[in-house]
Amino acid sequence: MVAVCDRVRVRADVIAERFGVAAYSDMDNFLARKDIDAVAVLTPSGLHPAHVIACAKAGKHVVVEKPMALRLQDADDMIRACDQAGVKMFIVKQNRFNVPVVKAREALDAGRFGKLILGTVRVRWCRDQAYYDQDDWRGTWAYDGGVLTNQASHHVDMLEWFFGDVVSVHARAATALANIETEDTAVATLKFRNGALGIIEATTAARPTDLEGSLSILGEKGTVEISGFAVNQIRHWRFVDELPSDKDVVKKFSVNPPNVYGFGHQAYYHHVVDCLENQRAALVDGLEGRKSLELISALYESIETGEEVALRFTPRLSRLGVVS
């Protein structure tokens, strides 16, 4: 890390002092540095497109937090800008690097689940009004979205990563407790191309503390549930073709992170460095990040229309990313 940029200079100064790097409040001056190879974009989601495109035009690789954008057109513009500049774009989906999730994915790749039947993700977290009030962009349609785009984005990605392409969705949402424009609670059912079904349950209205961040995978030959508050604890691991090593999986591959962000970020950034140094493909590049954005866009369309929505490249309706 060589520099940090924030439009609020005092914030940049705090981080810069902590890590012993330069601070900037002007992005053009920041990007003009020749010693910057890659930029981590950690700004409000609605600002990602402009910032990513600026980084690409400056010849910098980009690591961008989820969701990559709020509108599919913006995502396409970001992908195009990075391709034209010859730089890589990495979308942060660190839950794919959680130790229990990696173990479950190994079982999937080995065919141990057989035919996939049902996948469920649950996000039952506590985000009180003070959380939303700390920044004026939180919980807005233009710059943030709701629990689906912000907190549950990682879990939606995991569901697609394990079960594949989604054919259609039907969703409902409510703003149960938070004083925000968007939803703080949502549920959805999904149909996958492989015939499996899926369930999404997401809320920031759990009180008084975070309860659960989980993934369940049910197949004809096995069932796995990863729970805890950060998809960090293997609660159930059973397969028809039981292996001697299965008896130690729950204890060996469960972890205890200090918060809901888990330990995946460190592994993710190691992955980024490896890709850049060794010319490897990103696990979650722009196109992969776009897939989960397309699914989230369809969820919002279903919420707004009350109808089942088939996934396609351009949703008919969504307030996400629209500045009023």
From TrEMBL:
Top-level taxon of the source organism: Bacteria
Residue intervals of the Gfo/Idh/MocA-like oxidoreductase C-terminal domain: 105-311
Annotated SUPFAM superfamilies: Glyceraldehyde-3-phosphate dehydrogenase-like, C-terminal domain (SSF55347), NAD(P)-binding Rossmann-fold domains (SSF51735)
Limits of the Gfo/Idh/MocA-like oxidoreductase N-terminal domain: 2-90
One Pfam family it belongs to: GFO_IDH_MocA_C
GO molecular function: nucleotide binding
InterPro entries referenced in this protein's UniProt entry, alphabetically: Gfo/Idh/MocA-like_OxRdtase_C, Gfo/Idh/MocA-like_OxRdtase_N, Gfo/Idh/MocA_Oxidoreductase, NAD(P)-bd_dom_sf
Annotated protein name in UniProt: Predicted dehydrogenase
Species classification: Bacteria, Pseudomonadati, Pseudomonadota, Alphaproteobacteria, Hyphomicrobiales
